[in-house]
Amino acid sequence: MQIATWNVNSLTVRLPHVLDWLRANPVEVLGLQELKMTEDKFPHEAFAELGYQCAVLGQKTYNGVALISRLPLADVARNNPLFPDEQSRLIAATVQSAVGSVRVVNGYFVNGQEPGSEKFAYKMRWMDALRQQVQAELAAHPKLVLMGDFNITQDDRDTYDPEGLREAIHHTSEERAQLQALIDLGLVDAFRCFDQPERSYSWWDYRNMAFRRKQGLRIDYVLASAALREQLRACHIDTAPRRLEKPSDHAPVVAVFG
Fold this sequence. Notes:
Layout: E1 2-7, H1 11-24, E2 29-33, H2 44-48, E3 53-57, E4 65-69, E5 74-78, E6 90-97, E7 100-108, H3 118-140, E8 144-149, H4 173-183, E9 187-189, E10 203-204, E11 216-217, E12 220-225, H5 226-229, E13 232-237, E14 253-257
Parallel strand pairs: 1-2, 7-8
Antiparallel strand pairs: 1-14, 2-4, 3-4, 5-6, 6-7, 8-12, 9-12, 10-11, 13-14
Helix pairs in contact: 3-4
């Protein structure tokens, strides 16, 4: 079973990229973030032609998440029942896969703007509520994957300039503590379970030729529960889509279980 996450930064713009990527990489489940479209605009037919069904939580102009799956999606939940929110940031569903029943939670985490801002405080509240939600989900679903654009670097390996960006947004001690608290619920960072090349990133600014200069951040994750750890076989970042014309600023992260 392959599960992937990808912030597409507008599905309207990037739909051809996503469809081409799925043809070449027929993963069982793909979590998308930053759809930037309402649910009535979502291209269900295009995905159905490739054998995928979709669960969507859309929003005009901003945010929006979806699960694209070859497997039936059951018990779909949108956003966090513990955190009333007008922003479309979370979607979860259960799939019956080759590795058993797996609860998949896909999130577009709050950016936070800058430390000390109201948006940063919102990020902390949102993360507190997410931790409670994931804890409850784990109690009901031992095999769980939490994936998405976390907008947090886990440690200095995940940033091209650890000293220059220390305590800047995505790098603050508070954000990293929140990420660690999620992991401490009994999750593992699938990417770090394997030896990886140095300077492995999943996001690069469009400016200053950041991708070409390898000036990126790793802020997209697949976290797997302990019950799935023994079945985790590989995890990688696919940078090929970032080389396309008019790409997303993020690259897909793919985890393989079996």
